[in-house]
Here is the input.
Amino acid sequence: MSSFERSSARAADQLRPVRITRAYTAYAEGSVLIEFGNTKVLCTASVEEKVPGHKKGSGEGWVTAEYGMLPRATHTRSDREAARGKQSGRTQEIQRLIGRSLRAVFDLKKLGERTIHLDCDVIQADGGTRTASITGAFVAAQDAVNKLLADGKLKETPILGHVAAISVGIVQGTPLLDLEYIEDVGCDTDMNVVMTGAGHYVEVQGTAEGAAFSRKEMDALLLLAEKGISELVTLQQHSLLN
Amino acid sequence: MSSFERSSARAADQLRPVRITRAYTAYAEGSVLIEFGNTKVLCTASVEEKVPGHKKGSGEGWVTAEYGMLPRATHTRSDREAARGKQSGRTQEIQRLIGRSLRAVFDLKKLGERTIHLDCDVIQADGGTRTASITGAFVAAQDAVNKLLADGKLKETPILGHVAAISVGIVQGTPLLDLEYIEDVGCDTDMNVVMTGAGHYVEVQGTAEGAAFSRKEMDALLLLAEKGISELVTLQQHSLLN
Amino acid sequence: MSSFERSSARAADQLRPVRITRAYTAYAEGSVLIEFGNTKVLCTASVEEKVPGHKKGSGEGWVTAEYGMLPRATHTRSDREAARGKQSGRTQEIQRLIGRSLRAVFDLKKLGERTIHLDCDVIQADGGTRTASITGAFVAAQDAVNKLLADGKLKETPILGHVAAISVGIVQGTPLLDLEYIEDVGCDTDMNVVMTGAGHYVEVQGTAEGAAFSRKEMDALLLLAEKGISELVTLQQHSLLN
Amino acid sequence: MSSFERSSARAADQLRPVRITRAYTAYAEGSVLIEFGNTKVLCTASVEEKVPGHKKGSGEGWVTAEYGMLPRATHTRSDREAARGKQSGRTQEIQRLIGRSLRAVFDLKKLGERTIHLDCDVIQADGGTRTASITGAFVAAQDAVNKLLADGKLKETPILGHVAAISVGIVQGTPLLDLEYIEDVGCDTDMNVVMTGAGHYVEVQGTAEGAAFSRKEMDALLLLAEKGISELVTLQQHSLLN
Amino acid sequence: MSSFERSSARAADQLRPVRITRAYTAYAEGSVLIEFGNTKVLCTASVEEKVPGHKKGSGEGWVTAEYGMLPRATHTRSDREAARGKQSGRTQEIQRLIGRSLRAVFDLKKLGERTIHLDCDVIQADGGTRTASITGAFVAAQDAVNKLLADGKLKETPILGHVAAISVGIVQGTPLLDLEYIEDVGCDTDMNVVMTGAGHYVEVQGTAEGAAFSRKEMDALLLLAEKGISELVTLQQHSLLN
Amino acid sequence: MSSFERSSARAADQLRPVRITRAYTAYAEGSVLIEFGNTKVLCTASVEEKVPGHKKGSGEGWVTAEYGMLPRATHTRSDREAARGKQSGRTQEIQRLIGRSLRAVFDLKKLGERTIHLDCDVIQADGGTRTASITGAFVAAQDAVNKLLADGKLKETPILGHVAAISVGIVQGTPLLDLEYIEDVGCDTDMNVVMTGAGHYVEVQGTAEGAAFSRKEMDALLLLAEKGISELVTLQQHSLLN
Here is the structure.
């Protein structure tokens, strides 16, 4: 197995510097800027006191997500989805993933008939925008729930535990944690893993970009992801202490 | 671990009866009706002697997929996407998955500057439509490539090996192979696995529908999937012999 | 008047072999595969216990149709309407025709405030897809009504009689019944006729593709259509006996 | 057969007063306001020195039509199609009919690689808007062709003869020529007939709104239509003399 | 300051001939054809006995406008917005301006919970279509209100005063009133001014097309506009006397 | 004239604290975060080495703008335009204004056949987002032009001078500079003014929200705006020195 030189002399199993800034904007019930190195995503949580049609009268709430990328978040400008008149398949895939991941740690009955909208908008993209979105959206959702508790609108928290996400991949034969854009482009296998604070899987999405990957390679990747997510959960916890 | 009673006394690690009918319609270069029990998908492969913009002048070809469901393929009628004016996020997610899976076994350089369109249309849906689509689309693609070889348009095959897919899941604590709709609805964890004929992974997409799942559960599911896909590849091979 | 050689030595006033397969799929209240030679259309009838806005509170029901063509139903692949984001003018024209034709033999008062959706999806197209759709949709609608009667949801049938449709046209000077695609492409005049079992007209749509046509030619075409539809009604009746 | 009292003491086989005003607006190559009683349609013909994709390099031209209705052309305001973001099925059906009807009297080879766009916009609607559109569009097209001849862009006319259209219908058992809105709403059978100046059929579209109609009724309607169209062609000719 | 020769020897501070024709079409509650020279706009006012969502239950009414241009209102044909599937930014900007301008002279409380829809459709365009629309829409709205008063649906008028609009601009250094298309194309500064009958501003929209303009130039333009609007209000008053 | 108490004891003719942060994101040729108090807009300038169709082969360049608002930039969440599938009329109006304003200080010939895309995305909205966008977009455009000059792609600057914008309005009788959201909601008259560094007008858009406004009021507003813009231009200059 050859070895791949990462930027900033990062080790293969090392996260990029992660920064979580709460209350980044003023109006949302939860507002978090999360940075994984040069990747920066603004995650807001908005509470709406009604639910979509399929939940009306159920006594249950709903948690949903939308994802967007500013046109010049990337190296070359991409079209604005609002101007093109539709969201790409990639965008929809990502926002569905974020929504499912957050719902996995919510007891919708305890949330009551209200909706938490999670908006994840990428200010700057350098790989891992979907995993940063999930990790940041959890903190924003926690802030929104804390506000509902403080306001007496909720008696007990509907949040069952932490959820966080990281990407892993095999680049030139080396399994790496938390891929940057340049690593993502050149990788053979790319896997996004979403796990709970308790160390269980919420989502595993592995894709062979080049050659198909072996069971042994998957095992190595899952191990890396587990390490990274455990660190991210600790960072979420520290961030929420302040 | 409790045990779950499957329909038709099916064993937990047993595929539904699979039928692959080639040349199901007359005009497509490849046309396959694939049945996984009551799930029936028509997969056609159409060869077009040009490529999309991002491949023009590259000397490489392209393989892409579209997916659709007839409005009454399901127990209750769903809206026709053409009438609503857009494809759902679910539809786009599935057709992107089918496209990536098939490209994983294609050498696009050897295909030359032409496109193979794979259309997977669900006639009847009883769970597993995306995995049936991938498994059937491979056979349709093989037929289309054989026609290109027979017509002298290709000198050697661009197909690197088989690809097939199966769903696995945990229902009431029991890991099951090839979920029917009723099982899919009630499952805690749902995983779609795409593998090559050589036994390597092309895609792994696991989702906790209820509780998050453990590494041990994932291992059990991957084992089941491996068994199922190995059987599907054999069925593809037999089908292509005739 | 010159004479035109048809495929399979078919006579000018002869229908292609017609096959009507009921219960073709499992879930719809009516599900019919109708074949006019190589043209194959799946017609399903779905009962919905509500009506569109313009019928709400009227005590009357509604019968409506949608039409689609699988992308590779035809000799060369056509774009998927769901992917393009809209139905073509041709598609809308056809589904409006199917809807009007079926409503012509329904007593909407007797149907009660419910909707019958007729979905006509072309699996393979060799000319006459709209006439096959109407002829098959009638059988599917009958099956759905029979189910409503059997379930006690209807006391008496809202169906006033049969309806069926056929195309006729003038090819190289010869009036022909039930045009195949190759005949349709080359014809001077193309007429679609929809009639009731009692031999009255529901729709007549004649179009001069090349030269305008005379009254005498129209009379010849109407005669041919009457013969064809009478045979189709008999085939519908036989099919419904089983 | 009972008898129906028409407005303004009109006879059953009598057209409403028809007025054709050429050069109604200043910029179009042909611009005609046509009035059938209270129905008023502005038909413009615009010449564009290029053709759509399917005619490029063919040496042939194209004739096409678009149809629209001002929101308050009707008794109650209808939605603006541009604001709703799509044309209705009815609109598309009508503009396809107008286009086919006009192409029936054009030799596209003689037109050369240019397009004539016919825009038919209904200023006021009292039944028969599609037949007024066709009848007026012919005059606008003739004016546009005359301008091309006068400018030396065409050596000989590509127009093969007149085309005009009228509606006929059976109201309370009486066959009537040129239905007004109130008659159209209450009619059992509605037929639009498009014929050439030479008395041949270009389009016949008959629809049973209530009961299906007999061959004898159709014959009566076709006779009425023939009379009306012959009068319209005379009016077109007189209008073009000035 | 050089001087610019206007068509028809028009003075720099002179309006084009303005004609206001009421009851131009038969069905709308108000229907006005307004002509500013060769610019012709049909303005209809339609009363609907309900209000949009944001006014429901408020006891207040609503006044809104839509704007359209017939495809061949202009020198060269422009695309039909209904066919393209969306209104241009320019169209939306204009219809929002018309709506705001008319609401400025309406007491929405006195209107009661009903909507007045103003449809401004350009039949022929030679500059100034938005100012003609506002000026004509006022007369149509007045007619619709008069009808509501006559029908006893309103006890007192909700109209607070006149509103009218005109364009002014600087062409080759000369400030001009009421620009024609040819002047508009070549102008350095273009300003649309909307004023009440009492001489107050409702909207001022000035744009430097070429060089930025000075305060002195703006003052000259505002003076011209004031003169023009005062004349237009007189013309509205005369028109409403008949 | 009564007096209105502003937040933070701001004087009537005082700007909110303005902050201009260049190089806010890493990839764009110009990237500016501009803050007018709590209003925060990210303005990026992206250079593309091609021009839209209407400029092809002209030797001239193009400058264009797009505007967006993050869903939770505002007090209550608004729908994401990309998800709704179209940009609102307000959005289009604003981005057209930004584009025109910036083009007013560009010599498009000197820019050469390339496009500068200005993307203005509102992170947080407290009134004045369009004027902050224009003021910030100028700085981003200047940075992008400086880069083109530094890279030798331009020999001389195509920028003719500064452009900046501010809102003014009359609140409870008092003319105020730089309205906050709460002031904007309650104001009688709202005016957005765009001026060059040389003190000439590029755009003036005044709207009577409540009562129409007098010439004297307009004069007071224009004076305020002139003062504010002169201060903004100084701030732009200081920002560009660093």
In short: Chain E has a mean pLDDT of 95.
